[in-house]
Design goal:
By secondary structure, the chain is of the alpha+beta class. The chain has helices spanning 3-7, 38-42, 44-66, 108-112, 148-152, 179-184; strands at residues 19-22, 29-33, 92-93, 118-124, 131-139, 158-159, 176-177. It has six helices and seven strands.
Length: 207
């Protein structure tokens, strides 16, 4: 039996043996499933746990009403919660001193994106051996706000510090942001927070 075949064998001492997959570069195996019990199959315990959370909030709010205390709510949009400084807002692209995108079209952000919402078309940069994005498009409707694109970028060319929520849309086109649109956005550290931003300072926003 080969090394991978033996690594993929069942693990003794577990219910049903368990199924295992080889861990490349290691001598161990990782069990990825186990035999489900009757309780697991009917999800009774988890259902009761979820109902417990629901009833806990229900009776807590009911108690506030009975003693004359208001329920804690935020009168949106007249008042908005303070957002944390590290809130992942809509993307923007950073510029070089000459106004061109800092991006070198390495595709690392698109590769890291689990939602596949970034599309890049590379082109030659004039007077340089680096590339530049002829097309850099982000589908904000598909974005899951994970921030992996920001972490993957080796040039600090993309950030999620605009403080903007993408506006609701009934069509796909308004959710597709082009390279020029992303370059036109500013970040908080630039001192120019867009009027539609929800910032961490409870800034009043006019719709």
């Amino acid at each position: 039996m080969s090394q991978h075949a033996s690594a993929a064998a069942t693990i003794p001492g577990t219910p049903g043996g368990g199924s295992a997959v080889p861990v490349h570069g290691a001598r161990d195996v990782k069990r990825v499933s186990h035999e489900m019990t009757v309780s697991d199959r009917i999800y009774l315990v988890e259902t009761l746990r979820g109902l417990g959370v629901t009833f806990r909030h229900f009776f807590a709010n009911l108690g506030r009403l009975l003693v004359g205390r208001p329920i804690e709510t935020v009168p949106y949009p007249d008042a908005r919660r303070a957002y944390p400084v590290r809130f992942r807002a809509m993307h923007r692209l950073l510029k070089r001193d000459d106004g061109t995108p800092r991006c070198v079209a390495c595709y690392l952000c698109a590769t890291a994106c689990p939602a596949h919402c970034i599309r890049i078309v590379a082109a030659e940069r004039t007077g340089s051996t680096e590339k530049t994005p002829a097309v850099f498009e982000i589908d904000e409707l598909r974005c899951v706000d994970c921030g992996l694109c920001v972490e993957a970028c080796p040039c600090d060319a993309i950030r999620m510090d605009t403080g903007i929520h993408p506006a609701p849309a009934t069509a796909r086109a308004p959710t597709l942001f082009s390279r020029d649109q992303l370059l036109a956005l500013s970040g908080r550290e630039d001192g120019a927070v867009p009027a539609s931003a929800r910032t961490a300072e409870r800034q009043s926003v006019t719709p």
